[in-house]
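the two lines:
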Amino acid sequence: MDIEKYIRERAAAVNKALPAFVLGLKGAQPRLAEAMVYSLAAGGKRLRPVLMGAAYEMFGGRARDILPAACALELVHTYSLVHDDLPAMDDDDLRRGRPTSHKVYGEALAILAGDALLTDAFTVLLSSKYPARVKPAHVLRAAAVLSARAGARGMVSGQAADLQAEGFLRGRLTPSRRAAGRKLLAYIHLHKTADLITAAVEMGAALAGAPEKDFRAVSAFGRELGLCFQVADDVLDVAGDKKKLGKSGSDARNNKLTYASLLGVEQARLEGEALLRRSLARLRGVRGAAAPKAALAGIADFVYRREN
Amino acid sequence: MDIEKYIRERAAAVNKALPAFVLGLKGAQPRLAEAMVYSLAAGGKRLRPVLMGAAYEMFGGRARDILPAACALELVHTYSLVHDDLPAMDDDDLRRGRPTSHKVYGEALAILAGDALLTDAFTVLLSSKYPARVKPAHVLRAAAVLSARAGARGMVSGQAADLQAEGFLRGRLTPSRRAAGRKLLAYIHLHKTADLITAAVEMGAALAGAPEKDFRAVSAFGRELGLCFQVADDVLDVAGDKKKLGKSGSDARNNKLTYASLLGVEQARLEGEALLRRSLARLRGVRGAAAPKAALAGIADFVYRREN
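prediction for all of em together
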C-alpha cells in the first residue's frame, strides 16, 4: 500500500468539502466567514479526518458516509491552531508558510474565527444528513467524544499546561527537575495532541456503532499514536531549525518544554520509536476489517517517519 | 405571580449545578478549571436557562429534568462574555463588579477558559443522563440548535458585525448613514443577543419533543424577546452612565453603535416597548401549558422593565 497516496486521496475529499461547510452557514458575517475559510484552506495533511475515515471503515462503513464528522474534527483542529498562534499565546506570524489569521484579520477577528470554527464543528457534525446506518445515537456519541476530548479535560488543558511550562527550561535541569519536566510533558502531550487524535479514531468507531470493547481498543491505539505524533513533531521542530540555520520556530523562541529539549534529539527519537511500536501492538489487538487496519498501521508508520 | 421570585428560585438551581459540571470534568488543568469556575460564579440573572426551563415546561416537562442543557447554555453565554471582555475585543476590566477573567488570569488563560466553557457546554449537554422522556434525538436536536445559534450564522457573526460597527458614530449622521446604522444595528442585535435567547426557548421546545409548528412559534417569541432585551440593555447602559457621572461603560468609550446612541434614549425606549408587545403577541400564539406560559410573559415584561 502506498500510504502517502492513500492519505493524499483521502485528504482531497476533505479539502473539497471543508470550505463548503462554512460557506453553507448562510447569513454569516462575510469577513468572519472569509477568516474561517482562510485558515481552513491553509492546508495540512488532514490526518485526523483521514484517521476517522479509516477507523470507521475498519468497523464496516464507507468513509464518505461520515465526511461531515471528519470535517467537523478538522474544524476543531483548525480552531486550536488559530487560537494557539495568537499574540497572547505562541505569538506566531506564520503557519504552513502563510501569515497567521491574526496577522491578516487582526486579533479580534482571529479570536472570533476560532470561536466560530469550534462552535460550527458541532453544527456540521450534528446538523448534517447521514445515511440511515449512521444512527442519531451514534452521532450523539461521536459529538460527546469530540467535546470531551477537545474540552477542559482534554485539549484545552494541554494548552493550559503548555503555558504553565513556558520558561521551564530556563532553570538548571537537576535530576528532580528533569523528572518533573517529563511528568509535565507527558500531561501536555497526552492532552494537547493525543486527545484529538484519539478522538479521531474513537469518533470513527462511535459512528460505526462499534461494540464497547472495540471502542476501547481503538482508543488505546489512538492514544499511543497521538503521543508518537507529538514526539515526532518535537524532533522535527529541532531538525527544521538546524536546516534553517538559526531561524528558530516558536518552540525554541519560547523556550518550550519538548521531548527534544528535555531529553535531546536522539533520546526523543528512541521514545518516538517505542511509541510507534506500542501503537502498532494496540492496533493488532483491534478486531476489524484488514484493509483499513493496514491503512491505520501505514499512517502510524508515516506519522513517525514524516519529514514535515 | 411574583416573577422576580420565580426567576431567583429557578436561577438558584442553575447556580447550584453550574460549578459542579466544571469540577466534574476530572483531569482538567487546575488553573484552567479555576478560571472557568471564576467566570461562572460571577453571577448574573441566568435568564437563558430560566427561559429554557419555562419553555420546556410549557410543553409538559419539568425544568429540573433538563438542568444539564440549561447549564450548557449558560456555559456558552459565559464563554461569550469572557471573550467579549478581552483586550483585543471590548477591553473591559470589570464584569458584574468583579475583575474580568483576563485581569485575574492573564489573556492567554482567559482565551483558553472561554474555549473550554464553549467546548464543555457540549460535553455537559451531550454526556449527561436525562430521564427516559428526554430522547437522544431530542438532545441531538437541542445541541444542533445551540451550535447553529451560537456559531457563524448566529452569535459570533453578531460579535464580528459589532467590531465592524466600532467608530461608526464618529462620522456625521446623515439620514442615509443613520439608515445604514439601523440596518447594521438590527443585524448585530439579532445575532449578538437575540440568537442565544432564541436558542434558550428553542432548546426547551426541542428537548420536550414539541411539534415543528410549536417549535417555530416559540422561536418567533424568543427572537422578539431577544431584540427587546438588547434595546433595554442599550437604554440601561446610557442611564447607568448618567448616574455614574462620566464613568463611562465600554459602549460609550468605544463609541459603540447602540439604539440609544443612534436614535436617542426616548426613541429607543419606544422601540423596546414595541418589541415587548410583539413578543407577547407571539407568545399568545403558542399552544402550551398556562402557568409556564404566564411565567414566560412575566419574564418578557421583566426584561423590558429591569433596572440592571
